[in-house]
Amino acid sequence: MCELFAMSARHPTTVSLSLEEFSRHGGLSGPHKDGWGIGWYEERDFRLVKERDAAASSACARFIQANPFSSSLVLSHIRKATLGSVASRNCQPFVRELGGAWHSFAHNGDLKGLAADHRFRNEGFRPVGETDSEQAFCALMDQLRPLWSTGQLPPLRERRRVIDRFATALRESGPANFLYSDGDALFAHADRRHQNDGAIRAPGMWRLTRRCPAGGELAAEGLRIVSGGEEEEVFLVASVPLTSEGWVALGEGEVIVARQGRIAEQQE
Q1: Beta-carbon count within 10 A of 219 CB
Q2: In the chain, alpha helices (H)
């Protein structure tokens, strides 16, 4: 299965991410890495880097590791191909514009029968590649489009309602762990995943929240976060724990929302 990682922070923070170390910790080895991608929000823009090659042999991945970037919202994905060729167009995160904002999405799991399911029809958005993940993302964009028709940021509770409904339907097609962000909030949906013993079961994702003092540092497997001149609050979510303690498993079917490094209350 693919590996997911995302971060939400109170303030833009310096992030150094070693995709090779991260993938090893997630149980992936060289021949199973069929591409990778990382995207981060920066002043309402979304910067995306992805390749079809394994991170271990990528000069671009090494450049990102050696040249940390600053962001308060980050999504990353390491691919193990199950549907669609090994090509850049099939690497994640995927990104689309809607309502004057960049929306990003990454998924792991195998989804069956999406093309024949009327709940996942793609009308205003079309996949570029061949993956079930991108097809699901395009369907989500169609479902979100009415909320964003005014060009204003919709209330969080309304966005959450659409994500909850979408996640419930998606789980019927197979393991449906996904990350989605509209630049304001990070939504993480946990389902089931391939565990080390080969079984497919929960947990599909894990979360961690931390406070860092000004100039402090949070280090995990393949990850280093350094706060700037203010106290930092950080929310992390990943397919597997990146440190030995502190991570909390998400329940099967659980959706969690983070804004500015904090878990957002559902009633917001």
Answers
A1: 12
A2: 19-25, 59-66, 132-144, 156-171
Q: Which of 2, 91, 138, 212 is catalytic?
A: 2
Instruction: Report yes or no: 202 and 249 within 8 Å, Cβ to Cβ.
Output: yes
State residue 171 phi and psi, 5-degree precision: -60, -25
Q: Is 91 known to be catalytic? A: no
Cβ atoms < 10 Å from Cβ of 150: 10
Range with lowest mean pLDDT among 18-22, 196-200, 224-228 = 18-22
Give burial (CB, 10 Å; 0-12/13-18/19+) of 267: exposed
User: What distance in Å separates the CA atoms of residue 67 and residue 14, rounded to the nearest whole number?
Assistant: 10
The CATH class of 3-263 is: alpha beta
Structure token pair of residue 238: 């990943």
The 10s digit of each residue's pLDDT in 131-182 is 999 999 999 999 999 999 998 999 999 999 999 999 999 999 988 999 999 9
Calculate the alpha carbon distances from 167 to 23, 77, 120, 175, 191 in Å.
Answer: 25, 19, 11, 10, 9
Predicted TM-score of the model (pTM): 0.93
Domains of the chain by residue range: 3-263
Kindly calculate the radius of gyration of the chain based on its CA atoms and give it in whole angstroms: 17
The mean pLDDT of the chain is 89
Tokens 């090893």 belong to which residue?
Answer: 24
Residues 209 and 207: their CA atoms lie apart, in Å, by: 7
